[in-house]
Amino acid sequence: MDQLAQFAPIILMFIVVYFFMIRPQMNRAKKEKQFSSEIKRGDRIVTKSGMHGKIVDFSDKLNAVIIETGAGKITFDRSSISMEMSQKLNEPVKETK
Hints:
The structure is a single chain. Helix content is 46%, strand content 22%. It has 2 helices and 4 strands. A hairpin with a 4-residue loop joins strand 2 and strand 3. The mean pLDDT is 89. It is a single-pass membrane protein.
């Protein structure tokens, strides 16, 4: 019993790290993967590097998307699309009074 009492703080620390760091990160990765699989042609997106554009086509062979920007068409990996910024870009505009 005395040995268990010595390891209790370490065990408690691992539990705290799991619930406050690892689990939320896993949930976030799951949401990003779902978002990446649900995008479709015509969606306006923002990449993680800040490039704005509209999805024109998909490349299943490369697991990439082709987006149209002001400069032309560019191919990006699906993983480079920012979920938060793309969702903010597509939100309806709220009217202020």
